[in-house]
Amino acid sequence: MRPGSPRAVPPPLLLLLRVNALQSWRRILTLRGQSRLLTSLIGGFVIGYLWLAFLLFRHGLAFVDTFPGLGTLLTERLLYVLFAFLFVLLWLSNLVICYTNLFRNRETGFLLALPIPARTIFRWKFIESALLASWAFLFLIAPLLAAYGLNHGVPWHFYPVTVLLIGLFIVLPAVAGAWCAVNLARYLDRRSFQVVAAAVAVLLLVGAAFWLQPEPVNDERLETRVLAVLDRLLLKTRFADFPLLPSYWLSASVLDWSEGALTAAGFFILVLLSHVLFFGSLCFTGMGNLFYDAASVVQSRGSVFGQWDWFRRWRARARTFSYGPGPAEVVLSAARWLPPDVRALLVKDARMFWRDTTQWGQTLVLFGLLGVYVINLRHFSQQLSSPFWIKLISFLNLAACSLNLATLTTRFVFPQFSLEGRRLWIIGLAPLGLVRVLKAKFWLASVASMCVTLGLVALSCRMLKLPWGHTLYFAGAITVMTLSLNGLAVGLGALYPNLREDNPSKIVSGFGGTFCLVLSFLYILGSVTVLALGSPWGRAGTGSIAAQAASWAGFVALSLLLGGLPLYLGLRKVADFEF
User: Fold this and answer.
1) Which residues contact 318 (CB under 8 A, 6 or more apart)?
2) How far is CA 234 from CA 60, 135, 241, 498, in A?
3) SS3 category, 543
Protein backbone atom coordinates (compact mmCIF):
# COMPACT_ATOMS: atom_id res chain seq x y z
CA MET A 1 0.00 0.00 0.00
CA ARG A 2 1.44 3.41 -0.97
CA PRO A 3 1.94 6.07 1.72
CA GLY A 4 -1.05 8.36 2.00
CA SER A 5 -3.44 5.95 0.30
CA PRO A 6 -6.65 5.07 2.20
CA ARG A 7 -6.39 2.00 4.40
CA ALA A 8 -8.23 -1.06 3.14
CA VAL A 9 -11.25 -1.96 5.25
CA PRO A 10 -11.71 -5.72 5.87
CA PRO A 11 -15.06 -7.33 5.11
CA PRO A 12 -17.61 -7.05 7.95
CA LEU A 13 -17.57 -10.78 8.71
CA LEU A 14 -13.79 -10.89 9.04
CA LEU A 15 -13.92 -7.76 11.17
CA LEU A 16 -16.47 -9.34 13.54
CA LEU A 17 -14.44 -12.53 13.77
CA ARG A 18 -11.22 -10.66 14.48
CA VAL A 19 -12.76 -8.36 17.09
CA ASN A 20 -14.48 -11.17 18.99
CA ALA A 21 -11.39 -13.38 18.86
CA LEU A 22 -9.31 -10.51 20.21
CA GLN A 23 -11.83 -9.86 22.98
CA SER A 24 -11.88 -13.54 23.97
CA TRP A 25 -8.08 -13.67 24.06
CA ARG A 26 -7.87 -10.54 26.21
CA ARG A 27 -10.54 -11.95 28.53
CA ILE A 28 -8.47 -15.10 28.99
CA LEU A 29 -5.35 -13.06 29.73
CA THR A 30 -7.29 -10.96 32.22
CA LEU A 31 -8.58 -14.02 34.04
CA ARG A 32 -5.11 -15.49 34.20
CA GLY A 33 -3.78 -12.29 35.68
CA GLN A 34 -6.61 -11.95 38.20
CA SER A 35 -6.47 -15.42 39.73
CA ARG A 36 -3.77 -17.79 38.56
CA LEU A 37 -4.73 -20.31 41.24
CA LEU A 38 -8.27 -20.69 39.93
CA THR A 39 -7.07 -20.76 36.34
CA SER A 40 -4.56 -23.48 37.20
CA LEU A 41 -7.27 -25.43 39.03
CA ILE A 42 -9.58 -25.34 36.01
CA GLY A 43 -6.75 -26.26 33.65
CA GLY A 44 -5.77 -29.17 35.89
CA PHE A 45 -9.39 -30.34 36.00
CA VAL A 46 -9.65 -30.27 32.20
CA ILE A 47 -6.42 -32.21 31.77
CA GLY A 48 -7.41 -34.65 34.51
CA TYR A 49 -10.82 -35.23 32.93
CA LEU A 50 -9.29 -35.90 29.53
CA TRP A 51 -6.79 -38.33 31.00
CA LEU A 52 -9.35 -40.13 33.19
CA ALA A 53 -11.86 -40.36 30.33
CA PHE A 54 -9.13 -41.70 28.05
CA LEU A 55 -8.23 -44.43 30.56
CA LEU A 56 -11.87 -45.40 31.11
CA PHE A 57 -12.59 -45.56 27.38
CA ARG A 58 -9.42 -47.51 26.71
CA HIS A 59 -10.11 -50.14 29.38
CA GLY A 60 -13.76 -50.32 28.37
CA LEU A 61 -12.98 -50.88 24.70
CA ALA A 62 -10.28 -53.41 25.63
CA PHE A 63 -12.84 -55.30 27.72
CA VAL A 64 -15.30 -55.36 24.81
CA ASP A 65 -12.57 -56.63 22.47
CA THR A 66 -11.95 -59.63 24.74
CA PHE A 67 -15.17 -61.27 23.55
CA PRO A 68 -14.06 -63.60 20.75
CA GLY A 69 -15.82 -62.87 17.49
CA LEU A 70 -18.14 -60.31 19.11
CA GLY A 71 -15.83 -57.52 20.23
CA THR A 72 -15.49 -55.96 16.80
CA LEU A 73 -19.24 -56.09 16.17
CA LEU A 74 -20.05 -54.52 19.55
CA THR A 75 -17.46 -51.76 19.10
CA GLU A 76 -18.74 -50.87 15.65
CA ARG A 77 -22.35 -50.79 16.81
CA LEU A 78 -21.30 -48.67 19.80
CA LEU A 79 -19.73 -46.04 17.52
CA TYR A 80 -22.74 -45.99 15.18
CA VAL A 81 -25.22 -45.50 18.03
CA LEU A 82 -23.03 -42.97 19.82
CA PHE A 83 -22.61 -40.70 16.80
CA ALA A 84 -26.30 -41.01 15.94
CA PHE A 85 -27.41 -39.80 19.38
CA LEU A 86 -24.72 -37.13 19.44
CA PHE A 87 -26.03 -35.81 16.12
CA VAL A 88 -29.50 -35.40 17.64
CA LEU A 89 -28.11 -33.73 20.76
CA LEU A 90 -25.98 -31.39 18.65
CA TRP A 91 -29.04 -30.46 16.60
CA LEU A 92 -31.04 -29.64 19.73
CA SER A 93 -28.16 -27.66 21.22
CA ASN A 94 -27.71 -25.67 18.01
CA LEU A 95 -31.45 -25.03 17.80
CA VAL A 96 -31.63 -23.54 21.31
CA ILE A 97 -28.40 -21.53 21.08
CA CYS A 98 -29.13 -20.26 17.56
CA TYR A 99 -32.58 -19.06 18.59
CA THR A 100 -31.07 -17.24 21.55
CA ASN A 101 -28.22 -15.67 19.60
CA LEU A 102 -30.34 -14.64 16.62
CA PHE A 103 -33.47 -13.32 18.32
CA ARG A 104 -32.79 -12.88 22.05
CA ASN A 105 -29.39 -11.27 21.95
CA ARG A 106 -28.55 -7.61 22.54
CA GLU A 107 -25.57 -7.72 20.18
CA THR A 108 -27.75 -8.94 17.34
CA GLY A 109 -30.18 -6.05 17.83
CA PHE A 110 -27.26 -3.63 17.86
CA LEU A 111 -25.78 -5.08 14.66
CA LEU A 112 -29.14 -4.99 12.87
CA ALA A 113 -29.28 -1.23 13.43
CA LEU A 114 -25.90 -0.76 11.71
CA PRO A 115 -25.26 -0.64 7.94
CA ILE A 116 -24.26 -4.30 7.93
CA PRO A 117 -25.96 -6.80 5.61
CA ALA A 118 -28.31 -9.20 7.37
CA ARG A 119 -26.55 -12.18 5.81
CA THR A 120 -23.26 -11.05 7.42
CA ILE A 121 -24.89 -10.84 10.85
CA PHE A 122 -26.44 -14.27 10.35
CA ARG A 123 -23.09 -15.75 9.29
CA TRP A 124 -21.34 -14.43 12.37
CA LYS A 125 -24.06 -15.59 14.74
CA PHE A 126 -24.15 -18.97 12.99
CA ILE A 127 -20.41 -19.44 13.53
CA GLU A 128 -20.66 -18.31 17.15
CA SER A 129 -23.60 -20.62 17.87
CA ALA A 130 -21.93 -23.60 16.22
CA LEU A 131 -18.81 -23.12 18.34
CA LEU A 132 -20.80 -22.71 21.56
CA ALA A 133 -22.91 -25.79 20.82
CA SER A 134 -20.10 -28.08 19.66
CA TRP A 135 -17.22 -27.56 22.08
CA ALA A 136 -18.69 -30.03 24.59
CA PHE A 137 -19.06 -32.61 21.80
CA LEU A 138 -15.38 -32.24 20.93
CA PHE A 139 -14.48 -32.41 24.63
CA LEU A 140 -16.38 -35.70 24.98
CA ILE A 141 -15.43 -37.48 21.79
CA ALA A 142 -11.66 -36.76 21.78
CA PRO A 143 -10.72 -39.27 24.56
CA LEU A 144 -12.91 -41.97 22.99
CA LEU A 145 -11.33 -41.71 19.55
CA ALA A 146 -7.83 -41.54 21.03
CA ALA A 147 -8.49 -44.69 23.07
CA TYR A 148 -9.99 -46.45 20.05
CA GLY A 149 -6.96 -45.60 17.95
CA LEU A 150 -4.45 -46.87 20.51
CA ASN A 151 -6.38 -50.10 21.12
CA HIS A 152 -6.46 -50.89 17.42
CA GLY A 153 -2.93 -49.76 16.58
CA VAL A 154 -3.97 -47.29 13.88
CA PRO A 155 -1.35 -45.35 11.87
CA TRP A 156 -0.47 -41.75 12.75
CA HIS A 157 -2.55 -40.22 9.97
CA PHE A 158 -5.72 -41.61 11.57
CA TYR A 159 -5.76 -38.80 14.12
CA PRO A 160 -5.57 -35.75 11.79
CA VAL A 161 -8.14 -37.37 9.49
CA THR A 162 -10.44 -37.92 12.46
CA VAL A 163 -10.09 -34.28 13.51
CA LEU A 164 -11.02 -33.24 9.95
CA LEU A 165 -14.04 -35.55 9.95
CA ILE A 166 -15.33 -34.21 13.25
CA GLY A 167 -14.90 -30.65 11.98
CA LEU A 168 -17.01 -31.50 8.93
CA PHE A 169 -19.57 -33.43 10.94
CA ILE A 170 -20.48 -30.61 13.35
CA VAL A 171 -21.43 -28.36 10.42
CA LEU A 172 -24.50 -30.40 9.47
CA PRO A 173 -26.33 -30.27 12.85
CA ALA A 174 -25.37 -26.60 13.06
CA VAL A 175 -27.04 -25.90 9.70
CA ALA A 176 -30.09 -27.96 10.67
CA GLY A 177 -30.36 -26.18 14.03
CA ALA A 178 -30.05 -22.72 12.45
CA TRP A 179 -32.67 -23.51 9.81
CA CYS A 180 -35.09 -24.83 12.46
CA ALA A 181 -34.46 -21.82 14.71
CA VAL A 182 -35.22 -19.33 11.92
CA ASN A 183 -38.38 -21.13 10.83
CA LEU A 184 -39.47 -21.56 14.44
CA ALA A 185 -39.18 -17.81 14.92
CA ARG A 186 -41.10 -17.10 11.69
CA TYR A 187 -44.06 -19.41 12.25
CA LEU A 188 -44.26 -19.84 16.03
CA ASP A 189 -47.23 -17.49 16.33
CA ARG A 190 -49.35 -19.49 13.85
CA ARG A 191 -51.99 -21.68 15.44
CA SER A 192 -51.62 -24.48 12.90
CA PHE A 193 -47.86 -24.56 13.49
CA GLN A 194 -48.34 -24.80 17.26
CA VAL A 195 -50.85 -27.64 16.95
CA VAL A 196 -48.67 -29.60 14.53
CA ALA A 197 -45.54 -29.04 16.64
CA ALA A 198 -47.29 -30.25 19.81
CA ALA A 199 -48.71 -33.30 18.02
CA VAL A 200 -45.32 -34.19 16.53
CA ALA A 201 -43.62 -33.82 19.93
CA VAL A 202 -46.16 -36.15 21.57
CA LEU A 203 -45.83 -38.72 18.78
CA LEU A 204 -42.03 -38.62 19.01
CA LEU A 205 -42.12 -39.16 22.76
CA VAL A 206 -44.53 -42.06 22.48
CA GLY A 207 -42.57 -43.58 19.61
CA ALA A 208 -39.27 -43.20 21.48
CA ALA A 209 -40.71 -44.82 24.60
CA PHE A 210 -42.00 -47.75 22.53
CA TRP A 211 -38.86 -48.09 20.43
CA LEU A 212 -36.41 -47.95 23.34
CA GLN A 213 -37.97 -50.89 25.15
CA PRO A 214 -35.28 -53.60 25.37
CA GLU A 215 -35.74 -57.04 23.92
CA PRO A 216 -36.46 -59.56 26.73
CA VAL A 217 -34.21 -62.61 26.78
CA ASN A 218 -35.13 -65.79 28.67
CA ASP A 219 -33.14 -68.93 29.42
CA GLU A 220 -34.50 -70.74 26.37
CA ARG A 221 -33.14 -68.08 24.03
CA LEU A 222 -29.77 -68.07 25.80
CA GLU A 223 -29.33 -71.73 24.93
CA THR A 224 -29.43 -70.95 21.22
CA ARG A 225 -26.61 -69.48 19.13
CA VAL A 226 -24.90 -66.48 20.65
CA LEU A 227 -24.95 -64.45 17.44
CA ALA A 228 -28.70 -64.90 17.08
CA VAL A 229 -29.28 -63.75 20.65
CA LEU A 230 -26.95 -60.78 20.18
CA ASP A 231 -28.76 -59.82 17.01
CA ARG A 232 -32.06 -59.82 18.91
CA LEU A 233 -30.57 -57.68 21.68
CA LEU A 234 -29.18 -55.15 19.21
CA LEU A 235 -32.35 -55.04 17.13
CA LYS A 236 -33.31 -51.58 18.42
CA THR A 237 -29.96 -50.10 17.39
CA ARG A 238 -30.26 -50.89 13.69
CA PHE A 239 -31.53 -47.39 12.97
CA ALA A 240 -27.94 -46.16 13.42
CA ASP A 241 -26.87 -48.29 10.42
CA PHE A 242 -29.08 -46.33 8.03
CA PRO A 243 -26.73 -45.24 5.20
CA LEU A 244 -28.38 -41.82 4.71
CA LEU A 245 -27.56 -40.61 8.22
CA PRO A 246 -24.59 -38.23 8.58
CA SER A 247 -23.56 -40.13 11.69
CA TYR A 248 -23.25 -43.26 9.54
CA TRP A 249 -20.84 -41.50 7.16
CA LEU A 250 -18.68 -40.36 10.08
CA SER A 251 -18.69 -43.76 11.79
CA ALA A 252 -17.98 -45.65 8.57
CA SER A 253 -15.13 -43.29 7.72
CA VAL A 254 -13.52 -43.73 11.14
CA LEU A 255 -13.90 -47.52 11.13
CA ASP A 256 -12.71 -48.00 7.54
CA TRP A 257 -9.71 -45.72 7.98
CA SER A 258 -8.65 -47.52 11.16
CA GLU A 259 -8.83 -50.88 9.34
CA GLY A 260 -6.76 -49.64 6.39
CA ALA A 261 -9.66 -49.55 3.90
CA LEU A 262 -8.69 -46.09 2.66
CA THR A 263 -10.76 -46.29 -0.52
CA ALA A 264 -14.00 -47.01 1.31
CA ALA A 265 -13.15 -44.38 3.93
CA GLY A 266 -12.40 -41.84 1.23
CA PHE A 267 -15.81 -42.46 -0.34
CA PHE A 268 -17.66 -41.67 2.89
CA ILE A 269 -15.40 -38.68 3.51
CA LEU A 270 -16.35 -37.30 0.11
CA VAL A 271 -20.03 -37.97 0.81
CA LEU A 272 -19.77 -36.04 4.09
CA LEU A 273 -17.77 -33.25 2.46
CA SER A 274 -20.22 -32.84 -0.41
CA HIS A 275 -23.19 -32.50 1.95
CA VAL A 276 -21.30 -30.05 4.15
CA LEU A 277 -20.38 -27.89 1.16
CA PHE A 278 -23.90 -28.00 -0.29
CA PHE A 279 -25.89 -27.28 2.85
CA GLY A 280 -23.22 -24.96 4.22
CA SER A 281 -23.27 -22.84 1.06
CA LEU A 282 -27.08 -22.73 1.16
CA CYS A 283 -26.96 -21.59 4.77
CA PHE A 284 -24.33 -18.91 4.14
CA THR A 285 -25.92 -17.52 1.00
CA GLY A 286 -29.67 -18.00 1.42
CA MET A 287 -30.47 -17.75 5.13
CA GLY A 288 -29.65 -14.06 5.58
CA ASN A 289 -32.92 -12.73 4.17
CA LEU A 290 -34.95 -15.38 6.01
CA PHE A 291 -33.21 -14.38 9.24
CA TYR A 292 -34.04 -10.71 8.68
CA ASP A 293 -37.71 -11.53 8.05
CA ALA A 294 -37.83 -13.76 11.13
CA ALA A 295 -36.19 -11.09 13.29
CA SER A 296 -38.76 -8.56 12.08
CA VAL A 297 -41.60 -10.95 12.93
CA VAL A 298 -40.20 -11.68 16.40
CA GLN A 299 -39.79 -8.00 17.25
CA SER A 300 -43.21 -6.99 15.93
CA ARG A 301 -45.53 -9.61 17.39
CA GLY A 302 -47.01 -9.35 20.83
CA SER A 303 -47.28 -13.01 21.76
CA VAL A 304 -47.04 -16.41 20.10
CA PHE A 305 -50.56 -17.22 21.38
CA GLY A 306 -52.18 -14.26 19.65
CA GLN A 307 -54.16 -16.54 17.29
CA TRP A 308 -56.07 -18.21 20.12
CA ASP A 309 -59.45 -16.89 21.29
CA TRP A 310 -58.83 -17.67 24.96
CA PHE A 311 -55.63 -15.61 24.89
CA ARG A 312 -57.34 -12.63 23.23
CA ARG A 313 -60.12 -12.73 25.84
CA TRP A 314 -57.55 -12.85 28.60
CA ARG A 315 -55.69 -9.90 27.12
CA ALA A 316 -58.96 -7.97 26.82
CA ARG A 317 -59.61 -8.53 30.52
CA ALA A 318 -56.04 -7.53 31.31
CA ARG A 319 -56.46 -4.18 29.55
CA THR A 320 -59.34 -3.31 31.88
CA PHE A 321 -57.19 -4.08 34.95
CA SER A 322 -59.95 -6.28 36.34
CA TYR A 323 -57.97 -9.50 36.60
CA GLY A 324 -56.92 -10.98 39.93
CA PRO A 325 -53.53 -12.18 41.12
CA GLY A 326 -51.55 -14.49 38.89
CA PRO A 327 -50.67 -18.13 39.63
CA ALA A 328 -47.33 -17.19 41.19
CA GLU A 329 -49.00 -14.77 43.60
CA VAL A 330 -51.65 -17.35 44.50
CA VAL A 331 -49.05 -20.02 45.28
CA LEU A 332 -46.78 -17.75 47.28
CA SER A 333 -49.65 -16.11 49.14
CA ALA A 334 -49.92 -19.31 51.19
CA ALA A 335 -46.39 -18.70 52.53
CA ARG A 336 -47.51 -16.28 55.22
CA TRP A 337 -44.21 -16.61 57.07
CA LEU A 338 -42.39 -14.85 54.20
CA PRO A 339 -42.27 -11.04 54.24
CA PRO A 340 -44.18 -9.32 51.40
CA ASP A 341 -40.99 -7.94 49.82
CA VAL A 342 -39.44 -11.42 49.67
CA ARG A 343 -42.61 -12.83 48.10
CA ALA A 344 -42.53 -10.05 45.49
CA LEU A 345 -38.91 -10.92 44.65
CA LEU A 346 -39.75 -14.61 44.28
CA VAL A 347 -42.68 -13.77 41.99
CA LYS A 348 -40.42 -11.59 39.89
CA ASP A 349 -37.79 -14.35 39.50
CA ALA A 350 -40.43 -16.95 38.64
CA ARG A 351 -41.96 -14.71 35.98
CA MET A 352 -38.60 -13.79 34.49
CA PHE A 353 -37.77 -17.48 34.17
CA TRP A 354 -41.12 -18.24 32.54
CA ARG A 355 -40.86 -15.36 30.08
CA ASP A 356 -37.45 -16.53 28.86
CA THR A 357 -38.35 -19.19 26.31
CA THR A 358 -34.80 -20.46 25.96
CA GLN A 359 -34.48 -21.24 29.67
CA TRP A 360 -37.61 -23.30 30.16
CA GLY A 361 -37.12 -24.78 26.69
CA GLN A 362 -33.75 -26.18 27.78
CA THR A 363 -35.38 -27.40 30.98
CA LEU A 364 -37.92 -29.38 28.95
CA VAL A 365 -35.12 -30.96 26.88
CA LEU A 366 -33.28 -31.92 30.06
CA PHE A 367 -36.41 -33.42 31.62
CA GLY A 368 -37.05 -35.34 28.40
CA LEU A 369 -33.61 -36.95 28.67
CA LEU A 370 -34.30 -37.73 32.32
CA GLY A 371 -37.57 -39.36 31.31
CA VAL A 372 -35.73 -41.66 28.89
CA TYR A 373 -33.26 -42.50 31.66
CA VAL A 374 -35.97 -43.37 34.19
CA ILE A 375 -37.98 -45.40 31.67
CA ASN A 376 -34.97 -47.56 30.84
CA LEU A 377 -34.17 -48.11 34.52
CA ARG A 378 -37.31 -50.22 34.79
CA HIS A 379 -36.04 -52.67 32.17
CA PHE A 380 -32.47 -52.56 33.48
CA SER A 381 -33.50 -53.55 37.00
CA GLN A 382 -34.82 -56.90 35.74
CA GLN A 383 -31.25 -58.10 35.16
CA LEU A 384 -29.98 -57.25 38.69
CA SER A 385 -29.49 -60.26 40.93
CA SER A 386 -26.08 -59.92 42.62
CA PRO A 387 -25.88 -57.73 45.78
CA PHE A 388 -22.63 -56.22 44.48
CA TRP A 389 -24.24 -55.01 41.27
CA ILE A 390 -27.30 -53.73 43.13
CA LYS A 391 -25.08 -51.63 45.41
CA LEU A 392 -22.96 -50.40 42.51
CA ILE A 393 -25.93 -49.44 40.36
CA SER A 394 -27.66 -47.70 43.26
CA PHE A 395 -24.68 -45.43 43.88
CA LEU A 396 -24.22 -44.84 40.16
CA ASN A 397 -27.87 -43.78 40.12
CA LEU A 398 -27.12 -41.33 42.95
CA ALA A 399 -24.23 -39.97 40.89
CA ALA A 400 -26.49 -39.59 37.84
CA CYS A 401 -29.15 -37.73 39.85
CA SER A 402 -26.56 -35.45 41.42
CA LEU A 403 -24.96 -34.73 38.05
CA ASN A 404 -28.37 -33.73 36.77
CA LEU A 405 -28.68 -31.46 39.81
CA ALA A 406 -25.26 -29.93 39.07
CA THR A 407 -26.40 -29.25 35.51
CA LEU A 408 -29.52 -27.47 36.76
CA THR A 409 -27.69 -25.36 39.33
CA THR A 410 -24.85 -24.37 37.02
CA ARG A 411 -27.08 -23.58 34.06
CA PHE A 412 -30.02 -21.87 35.80
CA VAL A 413 -29.00 -20.89 39.35
CA PHE A 414 -25.50 -19.50 38.79
CA PRO A 415 -26.56 -16.70 36.36
CA GLN A 416 -29.50 -15.51 38.50
CA PHE A 417 -27.54 -12.76 40.25
CA SER A 418 -25.88 -11.61 37.01
CA LEU A 419 -29.22 -11.49 35.19
CA GLU A 420 -30.23 -8.54 37.36
CA GLY A 421 -27.79 -6.68 35.13
CA ARG A 422 -27.42 -2.95 35.36
CA ARG A 423 -30.77 -2.75 37.17
CA LEU A 424 -29.11 -4.26 40.24
CA TRP A 425 -28.68 -0.83 41.82
CA ILE A 426 -32.48 -0.51 42.05
CA ILE A 427 -32.68 -3.66 44.19
CA GLY A 428 -29.60 -2.59 46.12
CA LEU A 429 -31.21 0.70 47.14
CA ALA A 430 -34.52 -0.95 48.07
CA PRO A 431 -35.23 -1.76 51.75
CA LEU A 432 -34.91 -5.45 50.90
CA GLY A 433 -31.13 -5.21 50.40
CA LEU A 434 -28.81 -7.40 48.36
CA VAL A 435 -28.08 -9.78 51.23
CA ARG A 436 -31.71 -10.78 51.60
CA VAL A 437 -32.02 -10.89 47.81
CA LEU A 438 -29.21 -13.44 47.62
CA LYS A 439 -30.69 -15.49 50.46
CA ALA A 440 -34.09 -15.49 48.77
CA LYS A 441 -32.54 -16.67 45.50
CA PHE A 442 -30.74 -19.45 47.35
CA TRP A 443 -33.86 -20.76 49.09
CA LEU A 444 -36.02 -20.45 45.98
CA ALA A 445 -33.49 -22.42 43.93
CA SER A 446 -33.02 -24.98 46.71
CA VAL A 447 -36.73 -25.66 47.18
CA ALA A 448 -37.43 -25.84 43.43
CA SER A 449 -34.48 -28.14 42.67
CA MET A 450 -35.19 -30.27 45.74
CA CYS A 451 -38.68 -31.01 44.43
CA VAL A 452 -37.09 -32.27 41.22
CA THR A 453 -34.21 -34.23 42.74
CA LEU A 454 -36.19 -35.90 45.52
CA GLY A 455 -38.83 -37.00 43.02
CA LEU A 456 -36.15 -38.24 40.65
CA VAL A 457 -34.35 -40.21 43.36
CA ALA A 458 -37.57 -41.73 44.68
CA LEU A 459 -38.74 -42.71 41.19
CA SER A 460 -35.38 -44.13 40.13
CA CYS A 461 -35.03 -46.13 43.36
CA ARG A 462 -38.53 -47.43 42.78
CA MET A 463 -37.60 -48.47 39.26
CA LEU A 464 -34.50 -50.24 40.61
CA LYS A 465 -36.73 -52.03 43.18
CA LEU A 466 -34.63 -50.88 46.13
CA PRO A 467 -35.94 -51.26 49.72
CA TRP A 468 -37.40 -48.24 51.48
CA GLY A 469 -34.35 -48.00 53.73
CA HIS A 470 -32.10 -47.54 50.68
CA THR A 471 -34.50 -44.96 49.25
CA LEU A 472 -34.51 -42.90 52.46
CA TYR A 473 -30.72 -43.11 52.63
CA PHE A 474 -30.29 -41.75 49.12
CA ALA A 475 -33.04 -39.16 49.66
CA GLY A 476 -31.15 -37.79 52.67
CA ALA A 477 -27.91 -37.69 50.69
CA ILE A 478 -29.47 -35.87 47.74
CA THR A 479 -31.08 -33.35 50.09
CA VAL A 480 -27.70 -32.37 51.52
CA MET A 481 -26.20 -32.27 48.02
CA THR A 482 -29.03 -30.06 46.80
CA LEU A 483 -28.37 -27.46 49.48
CA SER A 484 -24.63 -27.63 48.90
CA LEU A 485 -24.75 -27.33 45.10
CA ASN A 486 -27.23 -24.45 45.25
CA GLY A 487 -25.07 -22.68 47.83
CA LEU A 488 -22.07 -23.17 45.56
CA ALA A 489 -23.89 -21.82 42.50
CA VAL A 490 -25.44 -18.82 44.28
CA GLY A 491 -22.22 -17.95 46.09
CA LEU A 492 -19.99 -18.15 43.03
CA GLY A 493 -22.62 -16.26 41.01
CA ALA A 494 -22.26 -13.37 43.46
CA LEU A 495 -18.46 -13.65 43.62
CA TYR A 496 -18.01 -13.69 39.83
CA PRO A 497 -20.93 -11.69 38.37
CA ASN A 498 -21.21 -10.62 34.75
CA LEU A 499 -23.60 -7.68 34.84
CA ARG A 500 -22.95 -6.65 31.22
CA GLU A 501 -24.39 -9.81 29.65
CA ASP A 502 -28.07 -10.73 29.47
CA ASN A 503 -27.57 -14.12 27.81
CA PRO A 504 -27.49 -16.90 30.46
CA SER A 505 -25.52 -19.20 28.13
CA LYS A 506 -22.68 -16.69 27.86
CA ILE A 507 -22.76 -15.98 31.59
CA VAL A 508 -22.36 -19.69 32.34
CA SER A 509 -19.62 -20.02 29.71
CA GLY A 510 -17.48 -17.48 31.55
CA PHE A 511 -14.83 -18.08 34.17
CA GLY A 512 -17.21 -18.20 37.14
CA GLY A 513 -19.60 -20.65 35.48
CA THR A 514 -16.75 -22.94 34.43
CA PHE A 515 -15.31 -22.82 37.94
CA CYS A 516 -18.74 -23.65 39.39
CA LEU A 517 -19.09 -26.63 37.07
CA VAL A 518 -15.61 -27.90 37.96
CA LEU A 519 -16.22 -27.64 41.71
CA SER A 520 -19.65 -29.27 41.31
CA PHE A 521 -18.17 -32.29 39.55
CA LEU A 522 -15.37 -32.61 42.11
CA TYR A 523 -17.88 -32.36 44.95
CA ILE A 524 -20.11 -35.04 43.43
CA LEU A 525 -17.16 -37.35 42.84
CA GLY A 526 -15.92 -36.94 46.40
CA SER A 527 -19.36 -37.22 47.98
CA VAL A 528 -20.42 -40.36 46.13
CA THR A 529 -17.05 -41.99 46.87
CA VAL A 530 -17.23 -41.18 50.59
CA LEU A 531 -20.82 -42.38 50.87
CA ALA A 532 -20.07 -45.60 48.98
CA LEU A 533 -17.05 -46.44 51.15
CA GLY A 534 -19.05 -46.09 54.36
CA SER A 535 -22.44 -47.28 53.19
CA PRO A 536 -24.55 -49.55 55.42
CA TRP A 537 -24.40 -52.26 52.76
CA GLY A 538 -20.77 -53.33 52.88
CA ARG A 539 -19.15 -56.54 51.74
CA ALA A 540 -20.45 -58.42 54.74
CA GLY A 541 -23.96 -57.12 54.20
CA THR A 542 -23.96 -54.31 56.77
CA GLY A 543 -21.34 -51.63 57.28
CA SER A 544 -20.03 -50.85 60.77
CA ILE A 545 -21.50 -47.98 62.77
CA ALA A 546 -18.12 -46.27 62.94
CA ALA A 547 -17.69 -46.45 59.15
CA GLN A 548 -21.16 -45.03 58.59
CA ALA A 549 -20.60 -42.18 61.07
CA ALA A 550 -17.21 -41.34 59.54
CA SER A 551 -18.69 -41.46 56.07
CA TRP A 552 -21.51 -39.06 56.86
CA ALA A 553 -19.21 -36.80 58.86
CA GLY A 554 -16.87 -36.49 55.91
CA PHE A 555 -19.80 -35.99 53.55
CA VAL A 556 -21.30 -33.20 55.67
CA ALA A 557 -17.91 -31.53 56.14
CA LEU A 558 -17.28 -31.61 52.39
CA SER A 559 -20.77 -30.21 51.76
CA LEU A 560 -20.23 -27.34 54.21
CA LEU A 561 -16.84 -26.56 52.68
CA LEU A 562 -17.92 -26.49 49.02
CA GLY A 563 -21.46 -25.24 49.58
CA GLY A 564 -21.50 -23.12 52.71
CA LEU A 565 -18.18 -21.33 52.26
CA PRO A 566 -18.92 -19.88 48.76
CA LEU A 567 -22.38 -18.80 49.94
CA TYR A 568 -20.87 -17.08 53.01
CA LEU A 569 -18.27 -15.30 50.86
CA GLY A 570 -20.95 -14.28 48.36
CA LEU A 571 -23.10 -12.79 51.14
CA ARG A 572 -20.11 -10.84 52.43
CA LYS A 573 -19.37 -9.47 48.98
CA VAL A 574 -22.92 -8.30 48.22
CA ALA A 575 -23.11 -6.67 51.66
CA ASP A 576 -20.39 -4.24 50.51
CA PHE A 577 -21.22 -4.33 46.80
CA GLU A 578 -20.32 -1.16 44.90
CA PHE A 579 -22.28 -0.26 41.77
Assistant:
1) none
2) 19, 30, 11, 48
3) coil
Q: What pTM was estimated for this model as a whole? A: 0.70
CA distances from 346 to 335, 338, 443, 447, 497 (A): 11, 10, 10, 12, 20
Instruction: Please state, as a whole number, how many other Cβ atoms lie within 10 Å of the Cβ of residue 41.
Output: 15
DSSP states of 361-424: HHHHHHHHHHHHHHHHHHHHGGG--SHHHHHHHHHHHHHHHHHHHHHHIIIIIGGGTGGGGGGH
Helix 71-103 with 36-65: angle, nearest 10 deg? 150
- Gyration radius from the chain CA atoms: 26
Spatial contact of 408 and 451, defined as CB atoms under 8 Å apart? no
**Cβ proximity of 417 and 457 under 8 Å:** no
Query: CA–CA separation, 451 vs 307, rounded Å?
Result: 34
How far apart CA 33 and CA 52 sit, in angstroms, is 29
pLDDT tens for each residue of the chain, 579 residues long: 455 545 555 688 888 888 888 887 887 777 666 566 667 777 777 788 788 888 888 888 888 877 776 777 788 888 888 888 889 888 888 888 888 888 877 788 888 888 888 888 899 889 988 888 887 778 778 888 888 888 888 888 888 888 899 889 999 999 999 998 888 888 776 666 667 777 777 787 777 666 666 555 555 554 455 556 566 666 677 777 888 889 899 988 988 888 888 888 899 999 999 999 999 999 888 888 888 888 888 777 656 566 666 566 666 665 555 555 666 666 666 667 777 777 777 777 777 777 666 666 666 666 666 666 666 666 555 555 666 677 777 888 888 888 888 888 888 888 888 877 767 777 767 677 778 888 888 888 888 888 888 888 888 787 777 788 888 888 888 899 999 999 998 888 888 887 777 767 777 777 778 788 888 888 988 888 888 887 776 544 445 677 778 888 888 899 998 888 988 888 888 877 765
Q: How far apart (Å, rounded) are the C-alpha atoms in residues 542 and 306?
A: 61
Are the C-beta atoms of residues 437 and 345 closer than 8 Å to each other?
yes
* 180 exposure class (CB count in 10 Å sphere: 0-12, 13-18, 19+): middle
- Ranges of each domain in the chain: 48-309, 356-579
> How far apart (Å, rounded) are the C-alpha atoms in residues 140 and 157?
21
Q: What sign results for the dihedral spanned by CA atoms 385, 387, 393, 397? A: positive
How far is the CA of 233 from the CAs of 77, 81, 238, 262, 464, in angstroms?
12, 14, 10, 31, 21
